What we know:
This protein has 188 residues and is mostly helical. Helix content is 64%, strand content 0%. The protein has one domain (5-109, 121-145, 160-186).
Amino acid sequence: MHGPASPGWLLVALCAATGAYCLLRMRSRVEEQRRAAGGEALMGFGMAVMAVPTTVFTPPSWAWPAYTAVFGAAALRALWAARGGGHHLHHLVGASAMVYMAAAMAAAPADPHAHGGPATGVPLLTGVLLLYFTGYVLLSGARLLPVAGTAGTAGTPGTAVAWSDRPELARACRLSMGIGMLAMLLTM
């Protein structure tokens, strides 16, 4: 992504930490959570790699088509899983957004300061994705707010809840990846 180095490294750290926690969530006892965590770990690490500032590392020309293929496969898997609805539709949008960004980066000039012509503004698909992820971030943030009367319902006193089974941490990871996706889309 083309942007300043400091925010780029913060985005790398955020996405890598989210991907690492999603790997931990893959150890959950709940099968659906394990499946979702795998796709979210791929997204987190993929976003971290894409967010590395180009002043530090410029990916080779074959990297963007490889990203497109990997996230295209993830989008097809999410499409297959979305037959049952649920959170898989969001995975489909996220993986498709990664395909879109990788394809846009493959088509971008190698020199970030070289412009092929007059600025045309924000492409329609980028705008739609920005609207979607803005709504997703706002909704995810609202879901993290505590609800009166539900404090302490995550587990009964004396029982420990495994780190991989903490729903509030999973929501926080999804929120951070949504914020990361917004940041990446804004730099396009």
